[in-house]
Uracil-DNA glycosylase-like domain-containing protein
Amino acid sequence: MKAVERFINKLSSIQCPNAFNPYSANCVIHDSSESAQIRRENLRRALNGALESKARTIWIARDLGYLGGRRTGLALTDEAHLRDYGAIFPGVQLRKATVGPVVSERTATVIWRVLLRINQPVFLWNVFPLHPHEENNHFSNRSHSKEERNIGEYFIHAALDLIQPERVVCIGGDAERCLSRFGVSSEKVRHPSYGGQADFMRQTAELFGIVDQLGDLFTHQPPS
């Protein structure tokens, strides 16, 4: 789809100081020469899967993290959950882009525990679609800058135009405040990090009508 290709090409062209673009750059420590290409393809398949599945919900968090999206090219998704994409977007198969063992991220683990319970297609995105890191420390996370937020605004609107969701859910207050500045209405749930896991699971369960499954979510029981 031409709109998907334009989106990915534009995203791949961004360069910001102290921010890793997983769609055009290869990490000298954890990547191979094909890693950026694999991440572009992962995003392409995720976007096409969302369109083919007629996803009507998008979850938006703040930035890509160094244990998750920096490695996979996918918001709120670590390498341990790449296979789970096929559960919400049937037929979508994604590849691990890095070398070495599979790396998991705590936030992604909680996010996907809930996603697999909701049992409906949900597209995942970030306010700033790259991985912002501290100067001279590529394997750290920082909040995006005002300039980076302006870049993110373009891609938020582009993603919304592409997916056409009926429902936008912000993961955390930072994301909700940014979308409010962008003029985008959304629902907010607490981010699962920094002690927010229980609130996140309870709030998403209420939003998506799976309160009866809260016990299984808290005890890590797999969906039946």
